[in-house]
Amino acid sequence: MAVSGTDGQLRGQSLHGFYRSGIRVLARMELRLGGLEPLPLQGALTSAAEARFVGAVRIPGDPDPDPALTVERLRHADGVETITVRNTGGRPARLPLEIALGTDLGSLADIAAGRRLADLQGQVQSAGLRWVRPGRSTTVAARPSPHAVLAGAGVLRWDLELKPGARWSVELQAEAESSVAAFRPPTGRAQGVPLPWSEPGVRCDDPRVELLVPRSLDALGGLLLADADRPTDLYTASGVPWRFGLTAADAIWAARLMLPLGTRLAAGTLRALARRQHHRSNNPGGRAASGITAGSTSTVAVPAASTVTGAEGAAGIGPGPWAGPEGLLPGGLRHGGPELPPSCTATEATLLFVTLLAEAWRWGLPEQEVAELLPAAERALAALRANVSDESGAFLSDGPGSFVTDLGRSPEERAARPLPPRCEVQAQAYRCALQGAELLDAFGRPGGAEWRAWAISLRERFREQFWIDDLSGGRPAAALVGPGHPVSAVAASFVHLLDCGLSADGAYHESLLDREQTRALAQRLVAPEFDCGWGLRTLSAKSPRFNPLGHRSGAVRVHETALAVAGLAEAGFEREAGVLLEGLLSASVQFEGRLPEMYAGEQRTTGCPPVPHPAACRPAAVSAAASVHLVLTHAGVRPDVPAGRVVVRPASTAPLGELELTGLRVAGEPFSVRISRIGVAVVEEAPPALQLGTR
């Protein structure tokens, strides 16, 4: 990746620089023409992997106020930059071009912690400079070769003579070398490997949609990774710059939200994670400690402008064995905010694995591929069962142990240090059990009826113990210390209760909440305590610990708001869904169609755009995929390919106006639908083997 301010200068401060494999290969690249820095005119991304910067320089002594020289810099995240100087004035220009280079070859982890190493002394090499640190080195080569190289100052110099109307260009290439890694790291999408999703056509009355979808897909494409030995199995890195590697939960969320564009991303993600799932053959010791992770889940600062490619980042999960309970996927503890305990991303990923496999099957993932992944899903269900069963293996039906907590903790740890079960974990476990039961039944495996019965029991206990009656109509408990002792936090994690999961015949599973409880939640989500006008705050503004820039205490997380929009619309609360949809679309304009992971949850006021969060990844896989899902979900496509059926039920209020979507994928074949301004769907292209229906 490459990071700079909008002026294009790499100044070695903060995150500035070119990075490869988690190392800053070049920290400084400051351009001066005739001893002057160009006046910045424009700096913007042209794609997730490239940026363009334009500046101007006046020729000294020229009385004309118009700048005679323009400087264009085209920067690619793979380390290539092309600089073009144009003379648009009426006089010849004779002046030097100098580029000052430098690097510390620091690691992204050190930079994240605020540790800035001293710049290294450069060495002259053919056509450029070289820097060396034990185990690492980098070179910058220029074409054409510079007229002079000043190693001590790290300066490349050309003496330019430009006639009126002439132009001159130089290409700089930063290359990195390092010692051999312990394992072969993931790579970007290889040349010739197609994108793991279809590229949809979007035509909409709302022009914000036509900006948001292609830019979100472009961002997501820049985050694609593949294992070195399995280049066709693609999955998404979590985000740039700090989580440029595989984080299991984020990769699954992104693949799930992208299912309307095909199942290839889901299949690649599931296979990659199945290879990383713990089972007895890769951990003979068998026991694990809580909170073990092979990849980072923290967020830190992101710059004003960044470009990325699918290179391996500092936070990747290696393919080797790791300690973990049977069936668990890798993941660490995630900060839960000031009022809630940390959440375990390994638990979230393990439960979501079953959901993604079940829903990819409904969207048309071939049965043979589903069958190959089913043992990994059964191991994930076994990890869930171990968390809510007694020593004999029988499900617990009462008491604190009957709710799901951290799957990575042993029974002894859970007994010694009980954790409050969280509401969103119950929703994920409930959906996992129901969809797991459907998979087991469909493929002739035992246990489906038992999982279905456990899910129904969990639903009854949840409605009784996790609901808090109050004067506003009631609300769920964010977590439960014990029977009758809910945690007082009012958090946006409630939205996971609306994410019920795709089932048979285009239906969704019944929610953990009953109808009136869902109505009360819908009304609360669009009240000012949650809805800031740009989306949902992660914590109620009424909380004494509310902080609009707190990533779990008040910031808007795009993913959660998008889940709320889809869940509310599916539950029949289309007005409330439309309110939150409008907030996200308005925010997307302020971020030029590239929504970050999160932004400040300050109340929306006229003339004040949403404030970027200093710790947000941009792009982030989950927010980019959620942005696409936000639009596609309004078509209301609900497939059940194993049953030969697809249901289309768009929002009756047509909040986006007329919407035409082409290039969707159901059963691996094109699917196109047009939604009228009165919410009527017309399917214009569909696989002939599928029966169309509405409900």
TrEMBL record:
Domain Putative glycogen debranching enzyme N-terminal: 2-172
Stored Gene3D superfamilies: 1.50.10.10
Transmembrane segments: none
Stored InterPro entries: 6-hairpin_glycosidase_sf, 6hp_glycosidase-like_sf, GDE_N_bis
Spans annotated as Disordered: 311-336
SUPFAM superfamilies, sorted: Six-hairpin glycosidases
UniProt-recorded name of the protein: Glycogen debranching N-terminal domain-containing protein
